[in-house]
Write a structure and sequence with these properties.
The protein is α/β, with parallel strands linked by helices. It has 11 helices and 8 strands. The chain has an 8-stranded mixed β-sheet with strand order 1-4-3-2-5-7-6-8, sandwiched between helices. The radius of gyration is 18 Å and the shape is globular. The chain binds guanosine-5'-triphosphate and magnesium ion.
Length: 288
């Protein structure tokens, strides 16, 4: 990859909190956490766009362009924080385009969010994927809901527009509606798309959630905890697109049915977590 050791010694780099990247970075990805700050860093952001990236060089430029369009529409002070575990040029591109880059070992999607939480500077956080599937030009309604007092804002692709072929038919017409219905019945919630990866929440809520899931089960853990913590929750529509040509889904690399199985695994995690002490081991907010 092109994230060279020469690049690592630029003055814009803030020293890592847990050690420095090594020459191995070029081959195996980062071994430790290290923060890289762009020359045009945003001071005192109100909002952090927090996005994990694993080899997204084909989409990251367009993705950041969408973020900037969304930010311009809101007029807010926003930092973009990419939690990067790539071995391609994703971090170079992101830093050059003004994002903060936290280099982190590839330990799963949930772990990427856990690793990044201490580095978030915004009062509010909007999270999602770097693959240009969720429309980050539409961050406005998430931010408005958070400013209105919501603790947790779920995106809903079913209330937005789903581009043809963006979601496999098995997910769109069976897996997601069925798992959403079951979760709603169990927890008396009213979500319309429990697997939507674009979400907003306050930094305070994110910290108190104290996420433990290392993999994609973090998504169900968040929902479960939002219900148990009685967070003030809103849902906003989000448009969902096919990933641009050339971008290969991480899920599809695992096998045809992997992502469908993942939806059900997420639901089972939530159901199991409901009954375990782990689900109650976080602080419940005093004012609900
Ligand atoms: N830092 C980091 N990012 C990851 C990791 N795994 C996935 N990502 C990123 O997290 C986001 C969501 O990834 P996934 O949902 O696993 O993969 P995907 O390719 O979007 O899968 P589908 O769209 O569901 O088919 C993308 O931006 C990935 O690049 C990881 O271990 N570390
Ligand atoms: Mg994706």
């Amino acid at each position: 990859m092109s994230f060279s050791s020469d690049f690592l010694s630029r003055p814009s780099i803030e020293s890592g909190l847990r050690g420095k990247a090594t020459a191995d970075t070029n081959i195996a990805g980062p071994q430790t956490l290290e923060m890289f700050v762009p020359a045009d860093d945003v001071a005192e952001p109100e909002l952090t766009i927090l996005v994990p990236a694993l080899n997204e060089a084909t989409t990251i430029s367009r993705f950041l362009g969408w973020c900037k369009e969304g930010i311009a529409r809101t007029g807010a002070h926003v930092e973009i924080l990419i939690v990067d575990s790539s071995t391609d040029s994703t971090p170079d591109i992101a830093l050059a385009l003004g994002a903060r880059v936290l280099r982190a070992p590839a330990r799963g999607l949930g772990r990427a969010y856990i690793d990044a939480t201490p580095f978030v500077r915004g009062k509010y956080v909007i999270m999602g994927d770097a693959d240009c599937t969720y429309d980050f030009r539409q961050i406005g309604p998430f931010l408005e809901a958070l400013r209105r007092g919501a603790d947790f804002v779920m995106g809903s692709r079913f209330r937005g527009r789903i581009e043809p072929d963006a979601m496999p038919a098995l997910h769109r017409y069976f897996g997601t509606p069925a798992t959403t219905l079951i979760l709603n019945c169990m927890f008396h919630s009213r979500f319309s798309d429990i697997h939507c990866g674009m979400r907003g929440l306050t930094l305070d809520a994110l910290r108190r959630m104290n996420l433990q899931s290392q993999g994609r089960e973090y998504a169900s853990e968040m929902l479960l905890k939002s219900v148990h913590m009685r967070l003030r929750t809103e849902e906003v529509p989000i448009d969902f697109y096919r990933a641009p040509g050339g971008r290969e889904s991480h899920m599809k690399r695992l096998g045809q049915l992997a992502s469908h199985a993942g939806e059900w695994r997420g639901l089972f995690f939530a159901v199991a977590g409901w009954r375990t002490p782990c689900a109650r081991s976080y602080p419940i907010p005093a004012a609900v």
